[in-house]
Every structure is written in C-alpha cells, then in structure tokens.
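As the next step, I selected for study one protein, both as residues and as discrete backbone shape codes, as given directly below:
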Amino acid sequence: MAVNVKICGITSETDGLVAAEAGANAIGLMFWEQSPRYVTLEQAARISRALPPFVLRTGVFVDPPEDLVVHAIAACGLNLLQFHGNETPEFCLQFGLMTMKAFRVRDAASLEALPQYATDAWLLDAYSARLPGGTGEQFNWDLAIQAKALGRPIFLAGGLNPENVGEAVRRVQPFGVDVSSGVETSPGRKDPARVRAFIQAAKQAGD
C-alpha cells in the first residue's frame, strides 16, 4: 500500500501548493501560537482555499480551547485534527472529524497511552522536553513497529528528511509519514526541492 505523506507547518500558499503539486496527501496548519510555524485563522484559511480539494487540510493543535478548534474547522475547511498536547481521548473525539493523536516517544513505556485514544490514527514523534513536536529529532523506529501492533494506523514523524525517509518507510511500513523541519530552509519556510525529494523518496519506498 502506498504511504501517505503529510507536509506539516505550512505557512504560505506557495509552500502549500508546492507540497500539493509534489504529491502530498495532507498538509499541516499549526495553530499553536508558540510555534515558529504558527498561522492565524486568516492565514490558514487563505492557504486552505489555495489548495486542490484532494489534499487533506490538517489542523495541528496543542491543548487548544474548544472554540479555537471549532472556529478553525469552519474557517479553514479542515478534514483532519491533530492533537499534540495533553488532550483527553474525549476531547479529541468530540468534533466530528477524523482525528490523530500525537505521542512523543522516548521508550517502550511511551506506547502505553496509545490504546486509550480511539482516534483514527496515531502520530509518533521524538520525545523532547522542550517542544511538543517539530524538533527534527529521531527516535527508535523499532518502537514504531511495536506500536503498529496496537491496532491503529501509524504516522511516523521525528527527524525524517529526504535522505532517510525511504529507509523509514521500508523498515516501519507506516500508514503515513510526517515532516516539517526536514524539508525547510528555516522554520516555516519550505525548500521546494527538498519537499519534492522527500515525497518522491517516501512514495517510491512504499510502492
């Protein structure tokens, strides 16, 4: 099965279109104000309107107030909600959209919380004491293989880039891969060549 590719932290219409034209299945719009990739509802709505309909618009949140999620869904036509904080399973599932809960993986004990979340997918990212995601750090992919056995589609994130995503897809065989810093020239600014190379490497490895 072909792997799904999500390009996260999109901050401009240009970067969104580059990702879409290169074959991305989804883009991520960051609504956490402390992120260097943060976009306002107005910016996110403009990006969303510029994208072709087949690209999933993912809203990325960290412990958001409920009304922010509701407003983002309405303003940006979101298809998928991604939660990176300490949200409860009940919080994640209340909005009537596809959902993905992110987990910061440090060791096997990090996987214990996964079955509590009946979201449509789980995203596995590297653990960092500083940030809830987007660190560019990698974790032990054997733990991702273990997580697959727990019964939900897995998106693999954390330290992926055009150079290693092919190996990651072949080894883990995840449902999807997620990248942000690994295809950037600076936080929030994507490098078109690296975006294309990442998507091509991921898709070829998943064939």
